[in-house]
Write a structure and sequence with these properties.
Blueprint: H1 2-20, E1 26-33, E2 45-52, E3 63-71, E4 76-85, E5 93-98, E6 108-115, E7 127-129, E8 140-142, E9 146-149, E10 153-154, E11 157-159, E12 173-174, E13 179-181, E14 185-186, E15 194-203, E16 206-217, E17 223-228, E18 235-240, E19 254-257, E20 260-262, E21 267-269, E22 277-285, E23 288-296, E24 308-314, E25 319-324, E26 334-341, E27 344-345, E28 350-353, E29 357-360, E30 368-377, E31 391-394, E32 405-410, E33 413-418, H2 423-426, E34 432-438, E35 445-450, E36 455-458, E37 465-472, E38 475-476, E39 480-483, E40 494-496, E41 504-507, E42 518-524, E43 534-538, E44 545-548, E45 557-564, E46 571-579, E47 589-596, E48 599-605, E49 618-625, E50 630-637, E51 641-645, E52 649-659, E53 662-663, E54 667-673, H3 676-703, H4 705-712, E55 728-734, E56 739-746, H5 753-760, E57 774-779, E58 787-790, H6 791-798
Parallel strand pairs: 9-16, 40-46, 56-57
Antiparallel strand pairs: 1-2, 2-5, 3-4, 3-6, 6-7, 8-11, 10-14, 11-13, 12-13, 15-16, 17-18, 18-21, 19-20, 19-22, 22-23, 24-25, 25-29, 26-27, 26-28, 26-30, 30-31, 32-33, 33-36, 34-35, 34-37, 37-38, 37-39, 41-44, 42-43, 42-45, 45-46, 47-48, 48-51, 49-50, 49-52, 52-53, 52-54, 55-56, 57-58
């Protein structure tokens, strides 16, 4: 068989050579540009068609052709290709080539020849497609107003009017006498999908320009075609646009649904068949075509339209909504409807044929509501229909809810207080509160009406029953009752409660269940105010913990109490104090210091309670060396004083309190630390020196005792007489009838002490004693007159203002007070006189003054 094929091939070649020689058999060659909607603004595809009259004896299954494309003016080859086709003498062969530049930029010439394994034919003549550069009347830029895929590389050409015109870059490559091209320009996505290309060239003495605009985008990429019915008689189809960013601006995509032109969002068919139907959508733009299909029974694809003309009839706790339909086919259509109330779905659905009304229950009285309605198929539910317009209504007022009542004791007074009702609890506009106080002993009661006050003072708290009711236009709330105890229950001790996450936490499991649960009360410990108590009720037997963290002030101490709620008065179970959030405390007060031997003792007062800001955990004591501010000691103590052992010197002490919230500001104190050894030495030296001086003075005084006595206590000299001294004395004897007889006798010298003793031993009694009224005076040396004087005159006679002598009382001798003798000598020894005694014994006598001589009166 192979031999036979080889022989046939040789015979065919010999016969063809004899018949045609080297002449080509390619006939009827046609060269043209492929026409599109935008080919006038830039044709890119060059088509070549031809026929071949090869020999009938040609036995090869395929025929090969070589094709070459040239820029006509300078005959530069831009493309060459070999193609293979099946032999067919009756039809044309076709070849397409896409040019890198628009075909209008310059003329393109094509030639081709036949080629097989044993034979290469001659080239056909050049067949030319003429460009716009042959006889241009003005400068032109290609391509223009065309659409390209994002990421494309496009080459632009600029055709000059004359050969002498040369454009500026980027048109820098010349391919013909009048045509210049750019390097391929890459197009990527940016905010705008339109790009302008400008060709600037020199024209005369000035610059001229010509430009073009191109568009970038993607081919159609629509998705998810879905066809539904809304009125039960026609079909609407919906789909999604491409998710890609680039969209065409002027080159919009064209759509066709089952062959009917439509636009995006408005594609539909006027008739509907109640059976499975197929819908086909074709999307097309200059960059490509996309086809979508959907198959379904339209009666299972019902999306109802929205109800219209919604009305309402509102009551305190329910409302009736009514509407109507704009589609007559809905009258008997089984449907299910849903309601959105204040933006939230109502918990219940409503169903029926041709539904036109529904009732919403369990609403809040005196509350504004908004409502919307939508419906869907109840038999073959596909999706919900469109929402109706929003309708607004307000429910009517109703009786308020019960208020939360509590008792507070403040400054020896009791107050009943209650929490304000929220708008949801008041069920209307509150007009006031009714308070009923019942005395259990006498059974009497009285009512009080308050407007907006939330607190009322109770005059007596002896088991009274207090009932509070809120009122509005609809009526009174249920009564809230509490029994006031006789006195505040302060029998429990106060403990500390630690903060937990910025609040308080109390375990409830430790308390036994009461008849109505527990009540937790809290208030500011140091800023407690009238009616400033807050409380929270814990349901009966609610286990777990109670937490409170909101609306608590940082750095403030709170008193938290737990009460048992029962049918009787509340009973206090526990009371604690603590801080929700501890802060740094204030300053300590009255910081003082003193030297205490070898140490310095610092002491201070506590931080005031309202400035503690937390539980004081201790005090930081910092010791600094005065002048250098060098810290030499840090001490932490929980006491309010501290002893610091320091060397002598000047120090600055800083004391600050601290809590878990931080350290407060310090209080500063400065003092000197004395040298204790020097103090002891100075004390010993001083005491020793004083003792030595005392000893020396004592010794000197002892040795000079006679001199000191003479100097300080000299001896009293004996009386010395000047001139003639009458050496006479006075001697008195008691007479009868209240008189005393006194005689003047010679005075005895020192050798006769008996007389002086007798004289000094006289006692004169006072005038109050029983004595004679007169006395007798006798002068024996010379005749004298004896005188008798009453006792009361004796005082003036014997008075001596310069010398008084007191004498002891002798037995049986009357006492004469204030006896005074006037002597004629310079010195008179006389006894001392006082009010009761005249003289004492002679041994106590001492001369004290010197008198001038005078006559005795």
């Amino acid at each position: 068989m192979s031999v036979w094929l080889l022989c046939a091939l040789l015979f065919s070649l010999i016969g063809r050579t004899k018949q045609d020689g080297h002449l080509t058999t390619i006939k009827e060659v046609k060269v043209y540009a492929e026409e599109t909607d935008t080919s006038e603004d830039g044709a890119w595809v060059l088509n070549v068609a031809w026929r071949d009259e090869f020999s009938e004896n040609y036995v090869f299954k395929k025929i090969s052709y070589e094709i070459e494309v040239f820029y006509t003016e300078n005959m530069s080859r831009v493309h060459s290709e070999t193609i293979h086709v099946m032999p067919n003498k009756t039809t044309f062969y076709h070849w397409k080539w896409t040019s890198p530049i628009p075909l209008q930029c310059t003329s393109h010439s094509v030639r081709l020849r036949h080629r097989d394994q044993l034979y290469v034919g001659e080239w056909t003549p050049l067949y030319t497609y003429n460009g716009q550069d042959l006889n241009p009347v003005e400068a032109m830029v290609y391509p223009r107003d065309q659409v390209f895929m994002i990421g494309s590389n496009i080459t632009f050409c600029c055709i000059m009017e004359t050969v002498s015109n040369v454009p500026y870059p980027p048109f820098g490559i010349q391919i013909s006498n009048r045509t210049y091209i750019t390097e391929p320009i890459h197009f990527y996505w940016h905010n705008e999908s339109t790009t302008d290309i400008e060709c600037v060239f020199k024209k005369g003495s000035s610059d001229a320009s010509e430009g073009a605009s191109v568009f970038i985008g993607y081919p159609p990429d629509d998705q998810n075609l879905t066809c539904i019915t809304r009125d039960l008689s026609s079909v609407e189809c919906h789909w999604e646009r491409s998710t890609k960013k680039a969209q065409l601006i002027q080159r919009e995509t064209k759509y066709k649904l089952n062959g009917r032109d439509c636009t995006f969002g408005q594609c539909g068919l006027p008739a509907m068949t109640k059976q499975v139907t197929k819908w086909t959508l074709v999307a097309k733009n200059p960059l490509g075509v996309k086809t979508l299909t959907d198959i379904a029974d339209p009666t299972h694809r019902v999306k109802m339209r929205a109800p219209i003309q919604i009305s309402h009839v509102a009551y305190a706790r329910n409302v009736t909504l009514r509407w109507r339909w704009n589609e007559k086919n809905y009258a008997s259509f089984p449907m299910i409807c849903a309601v959105k109330l204040n933006g939230n779905f109502y918990k219940e659905h409503f169903s029926g044929k041709g539904l036109l009304a529904l009732v919403l229950k369990n609403l809040q009285p005196f509350t504004k509501y908004t409502a919307q309605v939508r419906c869907g198929s109840n038999e073959s539910f596909y999706e919900w229909g469109s929402w109706s317009e929003i309708t607004e209504f307000t429910t009517k007022e109703d009786n308020p809810e019960a208020v939360d009542v509590w008792i507070q004791y403040f400054e020896q007074n009791a107050y009943v207080l209650w929490k304000s009702l929220t708008p949801q609890q008041s069920h209307g506009i509150l007009t006031g509160y009714n308070i009923t106080i019942t005395n259990p002993k006498g059974g009497s009661q009285f009512d009080i009406i308050l407007n907006t006050q939330l607190c009322y003072k109770i005059n007596e708290t002896n088991g009274q029953t207090i009932t509070v009711q809120a009122t509005n236009s609809a009526g009174l709330s249920p009564p809230s009752t509490i029994i006031a105890p006789s006195y505040p229950d302060n029998e429990v001790s106060i403990s500390h409660i630690n903060s937990s996450n910025g609040g308080f936490e109390i375990s409830l499991e430790e308390y036994r269940c009461s008849t109505c649960g527990l009540v937790v009360e809290w208030f500011l410990t140091y800023n407690k105010s009238q009616c400033g108590v807050e409380w929270e009720r814990i349901p009966k037997c609610d286990r777990g913990t109670w937490n409170k963290s909101d609306n608590l002030k940082p750095g403030e101490r709170y008193t938290v109490s737990v009460y048992a709620c029962s049918n009787d008065a509340p009973k206090l179970l526990k009371r604690s104090e603590g801080y929700a959030i501890e802060e740094k405390p204030g300053k300590v007060e009255n910081l003082t210091g003193k030297n205490n031997g070898i140490t310095i003792e610092l002491s201070w007062n506590k931080v005031p309670l309202h400035l503690q800001k937390g539980f004081i955990q201790g005090y930081n004591v910092t010791t600094l060396l005065s002048g250098s501010e060098k810290i030499i000691n840090n001490t932490v103590t929980k006491e309010h004083k501290v002893n610091l052992k320091l060397d002598p010197g000047s120090y600055i002490f800083r004391v600050s309190a601290f809590t878990s919230g931080g350290e407060g500001d310090y209080t500063m104190f400065k003092m000197e630390k004395e040298n204790f050894d020097q103090v002891i030495a100075a004390t010993i030296v001083g005491c020793s020196a004083a003792a030595l001086v005392f000893i020396i003075i004592t010794v000197l005084c002892y040795r000079k005792r006679k001199w000191l006595k003479k100097l300080l206590y000299p001896d009293i000299p004996e009386p010395k007489l000047a001139g003639k001294w009458i050496t006479k004395g006075i001697y008195c004897t008691q007479m009868t009838e209240g008189y005393v007889k006194c005689d003047i006798q010679e005075a005895q010298s020192s050798e006769h002490p008996a007389l002086s003793e007798s004289l000094h031993g006289l006692d004169l009694i006072s005038s109050n004693s029983k004595v004679p009224a007169h006395f007798y005076i006798n002068f024996s040396e010379s005749p004298v007159e004896v005188l008798y004087y009453p006792v009361e005159k004796l005082t003036s006679i014997l008075e001596n203002p310069s010398y008084n002598l007191t004498m002891p009382e002798p037995v049986d001798v009357p006492q004469i007070s204030n006896l005074t003798l006037e002597m004629q000598d310079d010195y008179i020894p006389a006894p001392n006189f006082d009010q009761n005694n005249l003289v004492k014994d002679s041994e106590s006598y001492k001369p004290q003054s010197t008198c001038t001589d005078e006559k005795l009166l």
